[in-house]
Amino acid sequence: MNNKLEQNIPHHIAFIMDGNRRWAKAKGVPTIEGHREGSLRLEKVIDQCGHRGVKVITVYAFSSENRNRSPEEIKGLMKLLGYFIRKKRQKLHKLGCSLQVLGDLNYLPDDLQKEVSDAVDLLKDNNKIHLNVALNYGAREEIAHAVEQIISSDVKEKITPGLVEQNLYTASQPDPDLLIRTGGERRLSNFLLWQVSYSELYFTDALWPDFNEEELDKALNDYSERQRRFGK
Fold it and tell me: For residues 91 and 156, which has the higher predicted lDDT (pLDDT)?
C-alpha cells in the first residue's frame, strides 16, 4: 500500500456482496456453490480489512427482497449461513471480531436464530474489528421500524434525524465511510439508505467470489484519492 492509503483508511466499510449466482453460472456449478464460495471470500476480506486498520464492516448477506427467491435457494442459503456462523465463529474470535446482526430475525429458522445468538455472545467482548451482518434486512423496513419504536415509546419531543438514528439497527455505530458493491451493478438495492447518505460509493465489475486482496486495495486506493466534504 502507498503512504497516502495507509493514512486514509476508511473506519467503516459496507459491502454489497453481489455476483455469487453469476459466478456459479459461469463455472457451471449449482447456485449454492456460488454462495459457499462467497462465504469463504467474506472470511478473507474480514481478515484483510482488519490488517489494513478498518474497524467496522457491514455486509449485505440476505435482503428482505431475497425472500422472493425459490424455496430451494432460500433453504440452501439458510443452511449455509448457519454453517458459516457455527464453523467460523472461532476463527472470528481469533481475529478479534465482534458480531451484530441487522434485520428482522423472526423470519429465520429457530436453529439459525440460536446460532446467531450463540455467536454474538461468544464474540461480544472482542474489539479489533466489528462485523455487522445484514440478514433479512431492508433499509426502508429499518427506517419504518425506527419510527414505530419512537411512536410506541410515546416520546414527546420532535422527531429529528438524531432521534431516528438512535432507533436504527446501527444505533451508536459510525456511518460507513465507503460502500463497495461488487458484480457490476450500480445501485444501493435498499441497503443502509439512511447510513450511506454521505458515504463514498465504489462499484466494481468483479463478482464477489473474485473480490480478492488486489480488488480490495483498488477500492481503498480509489477512496484515498477522494475529498469528503459532507455537503460543506
Answer: 91
